[in-house]
Amino acid sequence: MEKVNVQLGAAHQGSEATLSRAEDFKEKGNDALKAFKFPLAVEMYTTAISLIPTAIYYSNRAAAHIKMESYGLALEDASESIKIDPSYIKAYYRRASANLPLGHLKDALRDYRTVVKMKPTSAEAKSKMKLCEQLIRQAAFAEAIQSERHRPLSETIDVSAMVVDSSYDGPHLPETPPSTEFITDVLDHFKRGKLLHRKYVLQILLSMKSMLQALPSLLRIPLGSDAQAHITVCGDTHGQFYDVCNIFALNGLPSETNPYLFNGDFVDRGSFSLEVVLTLFVMKLAFPGHVHLLRGNHESKNMNKIYGFEGEVKHKYDDVVMNLFSEVFNWLPLAACIESKVLVVHGGLFHQDNVTLADIEKIDRNREPPESGIDCPFYTNWILFTLIVSHTNSTLNGCCFRIG
């Protein structure tokens, strides 16, 4: 093996044999990362770190954590990498890449600027730096006009004057609630790579907003006394339309006897986010008491800008449709309690043990998620952050807390 120069912590000088073993595990981690086997990559980098903790190994593990959206862990690893070797440029880039989706825009911008200063030719770092600057300006502008009274977009749109052109060959939205037949027609239309008419999309979104506004922040879902009563709970779908279709092929379409709960993150990353979320919305309109939708951290403006949904909607439709989606996302419920026994949330559990279901129920959810739980000025904002976002900011996996 070619000799590799690595920067070590002062207390971690290793033998040539140990370094060689660590490099082998690092290469296995790199191979796993390229093969999209992210948990395996984390395992390999962790083994390398246990042998010799270097800036490169920590930074590589941060990259794997970012791929898994474990941004809190990525922040820790990238910061440790910088601590070991303050000149290691990739660590700054990866720390910025973890801060950006968490909404820590100023922290991300600071590290992107460091990368650009250290490597002025990096077009990718310059692009991310400009994105951060743009998001910060937009946030400042939104804050400046927040106190101004203005009518929501949903109250200014008039779809009655919109005409569906005769060349449109897709399903037509009925005036009555959608039927199972309409759902099937929509799925088939999407499978052929076609879109719903813009008028119908706007009508679906307006109907969804009206329906969601009437719901509490915490859904209470009874299953009934029937021995066959059940509900199917689905996690992140992230724009994977054909995976969603496969769920219904295996488990059946929603109905009064086959209810579903989708636990957020319908959009972003996948190329068919629009098709996924519209499918779920049509199903919700068809079976309002048997299709339940919760909000995830990707049902938010910042995440949609970064991870693709905004670009997809603007490409397939326009700004108006995207802005209306943002309105609807703000009204998605935050949690569900099934049969008074099972609590379902997208983000995670609370670090305080005094949060009640009543606290969740009374949250004013019509807002963008806070940037962090620690910085939330209001108790209800802290709960909102935990319910939607905290799984991406945790330094632990699963339902657990660190003690000591």
From TrEMBL:
Serine/threonine specific protein phosphatases domain sequence ranges: 294-299
Domain of life where this protein originates: Eukaryota
Enzymatic reactions: O-phospho-L-threonyl-[protein] + H2O = L-threonyl-[protein] + phosphate
Pfam families: Metallophos (PF00149), PPP5 (PF08321), TPR_8 (PF13181)
EC numbers: 3.1.3.16
Gene Ontology MF, one: protein serine/threonine phosphatase activity
Enzyme class at the top of the EC tree: hydrolase
PROSITE patterns, per database record: SER_THR_PHOSPHATASE, TPR
Database matches in InterPro entries: Calcineurin-like_PHP, Metallo-depent_PP-like, PPP_dom, PPP_phosphatase, Ser/Thr-sp_prot-phosphatase, TPR-like_helical_dom_sf, TPR_rpt
Record's keyword terms, sorted: Hydrolase, Manganese, Metal-binding, Repeat, TPR repeat
Active site: H298 (proton donor/acceptor)
TPR repeats: 89-122
Cofactor field: Mn(2+)
Family: Belongs to the PPP phosphatase family. PP-5 (PP-T) subfamily.
PANTHER family found in the cross-reference section: SERINE/THREONINE-PROTEIN PHOSPHATASE 5-RELATED (PTHR45668), SERINE_THREONINE-PROTEIN PHOSPHATASE 5 (PTHR45668:SF5)
Protein's name according to its UniProt entry: Serine/threonine-protein phosphatase
